[in-house]
Amino acid sequence: MIPLRGFTRLELPAELASLAKVDAHFRSLLSAAGVATVVSEDIVLSVNEAMNNAVDHGSRYQRDLTITVDYRLDTDRFVLLLTDPGGRTFDPGYFRELAIRKDWAIGGRGILIMHELMDELLFFFIPGRSTTVMLAKALG
Amino acid sequence: MQPPAPRRSAGSRRAARLRERMAALMDAVTLVNSTLELDVVLERIMSLAMRLTQAEASSILLTTASSDELTFHTQLGGADPGQLRQVRVPMDRSLAGWVVKNDRPLRIDDAAADERFFREADRTTHFQTRSVLAVPVKERDRVIGTVQVLNKSGGAVFDEEDEDILVAMAGHVGTAIHNSRTYQDLLDEKRALEAIVGSLADGIVVTGPDGELRQLNEAARRMFGLVEGQERSVLLEVFLAGLPGLGATTSDVVLLKPRGRVLSVRVTPFNSARGTSQGLVAALRDVTETRVGQRRRDEVFAAGLHSLLHCVEGLQASPPGGTPDARLERLHQDARTLTWFSDIEMGPVRLLRRLSVMEETVRSATETWSSAAGIAVELEVARDLPDVYVDTKQLTRALELTLAACARLLSAGGRLRVALALEGKSVITRLEGESDSVELASIASLLEERQQVDQFLSIAGGQIDLSLAYARHILDSHGATLDFERSAGTFRFRFAVPSWREAS
Fold it and tell me: Fewer CB within 10 Å, N- or C-terminus of chain B?
């Protein structure tokens, strides 16, 4: 994924510590920008889910791999692209539906959470090379 | 009172004419390369030709599609161009036709006296042609018409020098026509291509060498949800940013929200004739219905198999009549194999990871297996092994499946050597022993395949066994690997699980 104009890029190793860093980064960013808590919590929760998927399923906690986060915070909209280099394809629609029906065990609801909390949700698969998830939400 | 200008000699007049001629030819070259507006170029070239040859009128006649007539394309001086455009000049009864057919220049001092002279043009326009100089116009090597100048001023006649000038000008006319026709052909092809691309049901996105958007057809606009007048969206920008990474592969873009569509994308790079990159063409097909149908089939298949396996396991636990049944065991194996196949195809195993000690997991699994199978185990563990972040239940399952394979492979009375060590950033577990089993060869040969299921697939007694394939699937879901090696009567399974931290 080539960098997009106007986006800020973070690069993090595929490890648990990166989850906390991303959480702290976006909490601080959205708070400083004056984004309403009800909106910023939706965003942070969704970003955390996307990051967790990238570190766990995408990169299998291989610290040598790098997760790339590109984001843009406009006055009316937040857009984030999160790319892991795992290149493992899956059917996000299936996992969203599964999470609706699922009543066993914990976990497995990340895609459903992102789908419910964000305005736009896109997955871009390059088999064997990368998976990018795009999250977008209006701030109004 | 000013003194009279000195009279110029014949030599200096010739030199001046030569300079003017050279300058005019240079102008003509510049003109041909300055614009693709053919009418403008031709009128200016013919204007130059008239001035240099001191003619009252000039015209360009081009052959028609049937090649038996000529029509006036450009006309300067003398008659009304509108009148001449209606005139059709026969190829076999005109001075212009003679020039085209013979591919030679023609100088006539008194046109009216020449039987080849086509009088209809003069009658139509009320112009009186006296002297004529005409030369062929060629597009590449093909004669396509003539340029002609009429009536040398002052009642003089055209000479050899005039002919040289007109021949040079005719060359530029031919080049200008060729350039214009080539450009027109390209424009026509471009328009045809745009019409085809525009009418396709598949979306087409064309980018330039720097990734800039060049073309987006109507189907692609719909797929990206662009409304009338909207040229860009974040979604489209994200797509364009991801395109260069796709290469010549087919991949999926899932627009989960707001539209819930799945696009299959195929990207083709295209190069110039010189081999430099010109950009990418991406063809997008909406495969939502196909993918949803496929998902439904997979779900029904998986749910049915798990239900079948559950029933068979229940029957095995309390067989009808109270006695074990070989057919029931076979049914159980088949149901389990199909369930493994379905699970592998459905994607990674869902893991509930926690930090754990690999030695504990391996020791527990091998001790249970050893006492059940009656096979001795030698366990060797390196010191200070780092923890692993795994789902211990799933990892134990993978070990159990692999140990079951070891039981089949080990020679009678053989023992299993289990060793744990750190290699690089992975905790390695080796299971090795001696074997004289024929299955040893089949496992090794199947290892050469690199597909999702068949790497650890084995066929024994005509029955497909996916137990090792499923063990590998569990490890793959952890980012770990399972390999198999053999050499002269020995075998070795090797688990490599990423460590949580480097060893102290």
Answer: N
Which residue reads 């976006």 in tokens?
A: A26
Q: How many domains does chain A have?
A: 1
pTM: 0.63
Whether the Cβ atoms of residue A27 and residue A80 lie closer than 8 Å to each other? no
The enclosing H or E element of B148 equals: strand B142-152
B16: left (phi over 0), alpha (psi -120 to 50) or beta: alpha
Helix (H) / strand (E) element for B498: namely strand B490-498
Query: Domain boundaries in chain B?
Result: 10-184, 201-286, 294-345, 354-498
**Can you spell out the DSSP letters for B162-203?**
HHHHHHHHHHHHHHHHHHHHHHHHHHHHHHHHHHHHHH-SSE
CA of A136: how far to CAs of A12, A74, B72, B178, in Å? 21, 11, 64, 54
- The C-alpha atoms of residue B494 and residue B406 are separated, in whole angstroms, by 12
ipTM of the complex: 0.83
For residue B161 the two structure tokens come to: 């020098």
Contact A107 B291 (CB under 8 A): no
Q: What percent of chain B has pLDDT over 70?
A: 89
Tens digits of residue pLDDT in B92-137: 999 999 999 999 999 999 999 999 999 988 888 888 999 999 999 9
Q: Is A123 within a domain?
A: yes
C-alpha distances (whole Å) from B503 to each of A47, B21, B172, B187, B495 are 32, 90, 82, 68, 18
Farthest-apart Cα atoms in chain A, separation: 43
Give A103 to chain B, closest Cα distance, Å: 14
**Domain B201-286 indexed as CATH 3.30.450.20:** yes
> Taking CA B277 as the corner, what is the angle to CA B276 and CA B279, rounded to the nearest 5 degrees?
155
Residue A22 sits at φ, ψ, to 5 deg, of -65, -45
B253–A89 C-beta distance less than 8 A: no
Query: What pLDDT, in 10s, does the model give residues A87-107?
Result: 877 788 877 777 776 555 555
Answer whether B131's CB lies under 8 Å from B171's CB. Answer: no
CATH topology of domain B10-184: Beta-Lactamase (3.30.450)
Interface subset of A 29-58, CB within 8 angstroms of B: 56-57
Q: Is A133 helix (H, G, I), strand (E, B) or coil?
A: strand
Q: Which superfamily, per CATH, for B354-498?
A: Histidine kinase-like ATPase, C-terminal domain (3.30.565.10)
Interface test with A, best of B205, B234, B288 (most A CBs within 10 A): B234
Contacts with B239 from chain A: Cβ below 8 Å: 124
Cβ-Cβ contacts under 8 Å, B252 against chain A = 89, 123, 125
Residues of A in contact with B242 (CB under 8 A): 1-2, 124, 126, 132
Contact B135, B167 (CB under 8 A): yes
Using CA atoms, how far residue B254 sits from A91, A92, A122, in Å, is: 8, 8, 6
Which of B244, B245, B258 is the closest to A120 by Cβ?
A: B258
CA-closest candidate to residue B474, choices B363, B391, B369, B405: B391
Cα–Cα dist B410/B390, whole Å: 28
Domain, as residue range, for A45: 8-138
Contact B238 A57 (CB under 8 A): no
